[in-house]
Design goal:
There is one protein chain. This protein has 373 residues and is an alpha+beta fold.
Length: 373
């Protein structure tokens, strides 16, 4: 399926500054905040409730099946983490020099074996294709190998994948109905529950009001992760000292000095964004999703995307729920990185260096904040 994008996208920001090349607003498409853009379209199916807490990107159970597939093909693997290990290179017989250590294997995302030697590259490339094919087959319910241990957890995940795949046509139909009626992004700004017209406010600190004042959050540039990048949200607001382009959506444990999933204390928000849809299509999608999920904020990236901040729900803490979320985001042509606990996202109120456009806050609903808990 192809999503049509206009040949030229108008520059967009929430404040009518002449330097931001603001396009004419036109007649509003939404008359009030509770307008129903979906018409007769059925609402998306709610996610199942759950209580177990887990992180999608590095949970041991989530990689159990993939580990078995890799071991069936490669033999013994020493696992350094649930998704990363080392083993003998599948092309070891082609090596022309000694040294370089064992081959590295990672099974998150597109599984891959990497070897230091170049002489085995053709064998390793072919092995990686076979590894990914076998993982795809196993996750669809097919056989793994002669020594496969189909644990109850693996069987449950396979059943959930089949259930999710059966729901994709319904989500696709709903999605196509939503993006076929694009929404002017300025209407999100006009219908923001929190008034963003006040030019004396600062987008950076308005967004940080979504966190509890005592939440330890990360701000910085993507490559930065030191003790100086972590501070309580309340202190950042009071001291007005944020001068960076990115912010975390999660909170971190006291004393944290590295932005890693192991240091995450609480999931606060999930960000929905797309580089494939036009800005009006993204606006329509975020507005439609708010009827099911709690839309707390929308940030214009200063480029070609809108970032919808949805309050994290307790029901999303199960592996099954996050698997369904991932499938839905893929169906909606959205990036699934928003499901990663430690993922950074663009902070509004600062100039984006590569486009020289403002990263801007265009929608804010403090009713979905964590300020009171």
């Amino acid at each position: 399926m192809t999503i049509t994008k206009p040949a030229q996208e108008q520059a967009f920001s929430q404040k009518a500054s002449p330097e931001m090349n603001l396009a004419p607003l036109g007649a509003p498409l939404i008359q009030k905040a509770d307008s129903n853009l979906l018409g007769a379209l059925p609402p998306p199916q709610p996610l199942p409730a759950g209580t177990a807490v887990g992180l999608l990107e590095e949970d041991e159970g989530d990689f159990e099946l993939r580990q078995q597939v890799a071991e069936a093909l490669l033999g013994e693997i020493c696992w350094d983490s649930p998704s990363l290990g080392h083993a003998e290179c599948p092309g070891a017989s082609k090596h022309t020099t000694e040294g370089g250590g064992p081959a590295r294997i990672h099974i998150d995302g597109a599984a891959n074996v990497h070897c230091f030697h170049q002489s085995c590259s053709a064998v390793v490339e072919e092995f990686n294709r076979e590894l990914r094919r076998k993982i795809w087959q196993a996750e669809a319910g097919g056989p793994i190998g002669t020594h496969t241990v189909m644990t109850p957890a693996i069987l449950a995940r396979q059943a959930k994948r089949r259930e999710v795949d059966a729901l994709r046509p319904m989500w696709e139909q709903w999605f196509m109905g939503v993006v076929s009626a694009p929404l002017n992004p300025h209407d999100l700004f006009r219908n923001s529950p929190t008034d963003l017209n006040d030019r004396t406010t600062d987008d950076r600190f308005d967004l940080l009001r979504l966190f509890h004042p005592a939440d330890l959050i990360w701000t910085g540039e993507v490559h930065q992760s030191t003790a100086r990048n972590f501070a309580e949200a309340g202190n950042l607001i009071r001291e007005r000292r944020v001068r960076t382009h990115f912010v975390s959506t999660a909170t971190f444990k006291p004393g944290t000095t590295r932005r890693t999933k192991e240091n995450v204390l609480h999931r606060r928000f999930m960000v929905v964004e797309s580089d494939e849809l036009s800005l009006p299509q993204q606006a329509a999608l975020l507005w439609a999703l708010r009827t099911e999920w709690q839309l707390a904020a929308v940030v214009y990236s200063g480029g070609k995307s809108l970032h919808g901040w949805f309050r994290w729900q307790d029901a999303w803490n199960t592996q099954e729920a996050q698997l369904e979320l991932k499938a839905r985001l893929e169906t909606y042509h959205c990036d699934t990185a928003g499901l990663k606990a430690s993922q950074p996202f663009r902070l509004p109120g600062v100039l984006r260096p590569d486009t020289l456009k403002m990263q801007s806050l265009i929608y804010l609903n403090l009713n979905h904040s964590h300020e009171r808990r």
